[in-house]
Amino acid sequence: MIPFPRLLHPRFTLAARSAQAVLRELGNPEPPINIEPYLKKMKWRLKYEELHGPDGYMIKLVKGGKVRYTIYLATDSDPDSPYDVETIQKRQFFTAVHELGHILLHGNFLLNSHESMNAIPEELAGILEVEAHWFASKLLMPNYVFRQPSDLIPEILAKKCGVNITPAIKRLSKLDNNIRESLTTSFRLDKYEKLPTWIDDPHSIYCASLKWDSIHQALNASKRRRYICPKCGLFHGDHNIWGPYCIECEEPVRLVKFPQERYYFFT
Ligand SMILES: [Zn+2]
Ligand SMILES: [Zn+2]
Question: Which residues surround ligand 1, an ion (CB under 5 A)?
Fold first, then answer.
């Protein structure tokens, strides 16, 4: 066993690169991303068992000089659990990717995570957990899935990527600002935004204040002024080369003020 590394903080870049490497191997698939073909290729197994505690763990087996990993996922059912089957399955799915993160990032120095996790100093264990989580987050919600402003809404991102709402919120809170900028510089929710088909009433997205607040937060997070065309409803960033006029209908644009004019663009 290789000695434990001395880490002072989580290696976010390394975790993100490992996730990218797996995605490349899978051919950068559309979400929801399934890691099973990757596990199959590596001949690593995924097993479902009652684990009496943890959500999952991974085991390293060295046999005849060959290293094999197995990921165990908990099937323990808690009759008092407030979560529905879908939520539990999504959590299991996230856990599997989290464990894959442990294999790829920490497999070298772990003999058997189930046992040696206890041998790892608490502070280091915390860092390894953060790394595995960041790996899972970047693998299941990679940069390339962010294509339109609605992807900045946690509910929509979660649905698109097959994850629960909490990991989606966390992912968005750490989203690269360049991605946010590129998605919100110029957009029109009412006309150009393609809404996912599972939203029966397209207006629900505008009206539910929670969802609107998410877009509002997304816009505000970039700390740039936004303008709206009163005629066609197009949002503009402040780097509009056409000046204070709409790039489509040449109407003078107005500064968007949040939150007083929260519902401005569809009233
Ligand atoms: Zn873990
Ligand atoms: Zn316009």
Answer: 129, 132
Instruction: Give residue 159 CA to ligand 1 midpoint distance, Å.
Output: 24
Contacts of 263 (CB under 8 A, 6+ apart): 206, 212
Chain-centroid distance, C-alpha 234? 28
Distance CA 148, CA 159 (A): 14
Q: How far is the CA of 220 from the centre of ligand 1 (A)?
A: 33
Separation CA 264–CA 267 (nearest Å):
6
Q: How close is the Cα of 248 to the center of ligand 2, in Å?
A: 5
> Of the bound ligands, which one is closest to the alpha carbon of residue 230?
2
pLDDT (tens digit, 9 = 90+) per residue, 126-185? 999 999 999 999 999 999 999 877 788 788 899 999 999 899 989 988 888 888 877 776
Q: At what angle do helices 12-25 and 85-106 cross, to 10 degrees?
A: 110
**What's the first-to-final CA gap in the chain, in angstroms?**
65
ipTM: 0.70
Span from the CA of 30 to the centroid of ligand 2 (angstroms):
33
What is d(CA 83, CA 202) in angstroms, rounded to the nearest whole number? 27
